[in-house]
Amino acid sequence: MDELNESTSKSKIRKSLMLYRNELADKPRLSRAIADKVLPMLSGNVMVYISIGSEVDTAYIVDMLMSVQNVTVFAPYTENGIITPKKLVARFAPDRMGNLPRDCYCSEHYPPKLDYCITPLLGFNDRGYRIGYGKGCYDKFFARCNTFKIGLAYSGQAIKFEQEATDVPLDCCVTEKNVIYF
Questions:
Q1: CA-CA distance, 86 to 11, in Å (whole number)?
Q2: How does 133-153 read in b/e, with b if 16+ C-beta sit within 10 Å?
Q3: What is the pLDDT of residues 49-68, one digit of tens each?
């Protein structure tokens, strides 16, 4: 994505990154390579986004974590732009916001201390800031939650852009090629 520069609007950057991600070949192999890098990093309470569209697929990550004794898996439930971590008990097809059917979540209220949060993104810069879909849901969540923030991305999603005052940086980003700490 080198053809874009810092003066390009986030709207144009989002469109370019969506196009890149939609046209990327061999996403299943790349997603598995990313999963193989991130899984050994995780323990405790882990929130993992439920992938939609051309995002890095998290189904394998969720399934593997749900079978590990020392891990409790949470998924974000987004309602009115607010993300709430909910304990997962099953995984089915998500809606367009990445929410699972309500019976996939534990009915008890869990206000967890999340050890790790796996977050989706359209792009990331060399300072750890991410470009999402533009609603600010994850930035608002990160502003009120002290957790180790891990972005999942294909290596071609690295791009130059200037973050905004409300953006919250990731702690690291995992691609098919490497783990990048910020």
A1: 31
A2: eeeebbbebbeebebbbbbbb
A3: 999 999 999 999 999 999 99
Q: What are phi and psi of 153, to 5 degrees?
A: -155, 155
Phi, psi (deg, nearest 5) at residue 77: -115, 120
- Integer CA distances (angstroms), 140 to 3, 15, 82, 168, in order: 30, 23, 8, 8
| Rounded (to 5) percent helix, strand, coil in the chain | 30, 25, 50
Rg of the chain on CA atoms, in Å: 15
Q: What is the SS3 assignment for 116?
A: strand
Average pLDDT over residues 101-108: 76
Nearest residue to 15 (alpha-carbon basis) of 126, 131, 166, 150: 131
Strand partners, 71: 44
Among 161, 156, 107, residue whose Cα is nearest residue 131: 161
